[in-house]
Amino acid sequence: MAGRRLRDAVKTVLSGDKSFGSNIHVVIAGLTNAYSQYVTTYEELRLQVHLILFSRGLTQTTDISVTGIIKGDNADSQDAKNSYHYRDDVQRSPRAFMLSNDFNMKNDSLAQDKPLKQRLGLEGRLRYDRDAQTSREERCFRLWINSLGIVTYVNNVFEDVRNGWVLLEVLDKVSPGSVNWKQAIKPPIKMPFRKVENCNQVIKIGKDLNFSLVNIAGNDIVQGNKKLLLAFMWQLMRFTMLQLLRNLRSYSQGKEITDVDILNWANNKVKKAGRTSQMESFKDKNLSNGIFFLELLSVVEPRVVNWTLVTKGETDDNKKLNSTYIISVTRKLGCSIFLLPEDIIKVN
Q: Is residue 139 part of a domain?
């Protein structure tokens, strides 16, 4: 909607200039992640302002005054122009409806001193946990896909894979030659059945790779079925990990690579470089500060770690900074990433 309004606005301006003629076609290139190119609709802006005010504890009733920011389209009075009812906007977004329902905004006091999860009812807590877990898995898959170095950059897994093209790129990366590009349709794809054709080829390749894809069809991907998409993505990531282990085995004359072998290799690398940190096991709680991983990365490529950006990892905030920096460094080295910063902090 925001893109169409922007396009119409540009066309209106250009139509007023006779030098462009009457045959004007406006094409908007793909928007980037830069804030300077952020585009939203009027309705989304109203909802975002409401959620921002709510998060800051500025809303005490269901009617929110946002003078100078929001004005009602059909307001009859000056007071109405500067206020709106939150229900007008939450009806446009299921996610916002869940928030508004679970936050119980009909109460004057929202008990801001309690954690969010404690303020929700049983159903709300279940949805909160489910939504948080889904969001975490989406981030994990997004980070992994972007670390593969495919052409298309993924901003949201559940949305960007629905045309099948991204999944075909990933499959071609992890299993070269498996995709028949002559039968693939490159975005932008206007016809829905073309998207289904791409996704059908994705399912076919998945079955050829021995994925368990019972009752999963290409149309399920097009429709954005999160449950089935997560099942497919987990198998795709697992296939990549097993393939990586097979490649390691080929370098070790067929010997099975064990956890002990990886542990000894990492400790020896760090020790030979004159570093003092060591890891006792993959469950060593000292790994949560991220220092050992950064030292190991600096041994692999001495120039890749900027130690002025590394903290001692003594507090949770410092640990988070280190773990986030670890992910950034590994991406710079071209590594495949199978975890999130939270996994490093929790030593998963």
A: no
- What is the structure's pLDDT at 6? 75
Q: Where residue 245 falls among pLDDT bands split at 50, 70, 90?
A: confident
Kindly state the average pLDDT of the residues 128-141.
69
- The answer to whether residues 247 and 154 belong to one domain is yes
> Does 154 share its domain with 240?
yes
pLDDT for 43 equals: 66
Closest by CA position to 311, among listed 321, 303, 298: 321
Given a contact cutoff of 8 angstroms between Cβ atoms, the answer to whether 167 and 237 are in contact is no
Cα(143)–Cα(151) distance, rounded to whole angstroms?
14
Are 265 and 237 contained in the same domain? no
Q: Are the CB atoms for 184 and 178 separated by under 8 Å?
A: no
Boundary (domain end) residue, out of 251, 268, 301: 251
Does residue 292 carry a pLDDT above 90? yes
Per-residue pLDDT, 102 = 43
Report helix angle 226-251 to 165-174, nearest 10. Answer: 20
Cβ distance 25 to 14 under 8 Å?
no
Alpha-carbon span 111 to 107, nearest angstrom = 10
| Boundary residue ending a domain (53, 74, 92) | 92
Q: Does residue 291 form part of some domain? A: yes
- CA nearest to 92, candidates 41, 161, 52, 157: 41
pLDDT at residue 254 is higher than 80? no
* DSSP 8-state symbol, 186: P
Residue 309: which CATH number? Answer: 1.10.418.10
Number of domains in the chain: 3
Range of the domain at 317: 259-345
Number of CB atoms found within 10 A of residue 187's CB: 15
Q: What is the mean pLDDT of residues 331-348?
A: 85
65 membership: H or E segment, kind and range:
strand 63-65
13 located within any domain:
yes
Q: Is residue 131 part of a domain?
A: no
Q: Cβ of 132: how many Cβ atoms within 10 Å?
A: 11
Residue 196, SS3 per DSSP: helix
**Mean predicted lDDT score pLDDT of the chain:** 76
